[in-house]
Amino acid sequence: MFGFLQGLAYGLFVSCLPWLIIGLVDPRLALPTEAPSRLHVLLRYWLLVPFIAFIVWVTSLWGGFGPSLGGWLAGLVAVPAAMPLERAWRRWRRARRERERLARQQALAAEQQAALERQARAQGLAVLDPARAPADADEVVLALWEAKGRLLAVGRPDLAILADRIYSRHAHVDEVLRSKFDARELTFERSRGLVGEVSRTAVDTLNTMASVARGIVGIDVDDVRRRLARQPTLMGAEERQALTRRLELVEDTERRLRELGARNEAAITALDDAAVAVAAIATDRPRASLAAEQALADLRRFAERAHQYGRAP
Prior knowledge:
It is built from ten helices and no strands. It has 313 residues and is mainly α. Helix 4 runs parallel beside helix 6 and helix 5 runs antiparallel to helix 6. The model has no long low-confidence stretch (mean pLDDT 77).
């Protein structure tokens, strides 16, 4: 056993120099990490592996046996044999971290969605249930419901609440139109068509927002920022450049989403303007046949002459 350990230590010592040279030429050939660099190559094959070999060699001296051929061969193939295993282990760790991150993200999105929906209900807004399509809904409302589901699917309940706001405005304008016009009137149909067109434009914007937001679903912004906060000596220039580019993609996407959100805010304002304008229209016929001043004057004259209508004894 000690002879095998001595041979393993000598084999590791001998293999360090070739792998160091290979890693300095191309770090990807000598390192199983996600973002290999020459600094990592130096740390591994100039310090870490020789230190492990030294510990194994010192431990094997207690036996007093010479190095075995099997130990030599095991030491020579230890590094190339360990790299596929380490790559598989690192992939497993990344997959597990990604699953945990997605689970945390979904839980946080669910909590945020519940809080936003409670706030919306407190403000008197109608809230679309993402699990069930609204009953007796027209084409526009169904499109809003589907757009909300797409935004929730990419973990953006802060954007999905826009669908509820547009749905509330659309329903409110439709209610005001029905209260002011007869459903058979041409004005009603034309006004309702314009309101539906504005709402459909807002739906298209929501779907675009869902498509844009889907592009950054797999980026863990917090992890990227933590990695960028490390000391520059522990990170290669290529890795830092890649992480910085990842953050720039997130920032550009968020800026694009804000621009699209501003379009929907304009659509909501247009629906509010329509509701106020239609509500101000006086379409009901007056119930009084006389003006208010004339009615008051006649009532005063009647009160002054009321004693004349008394029955004589």
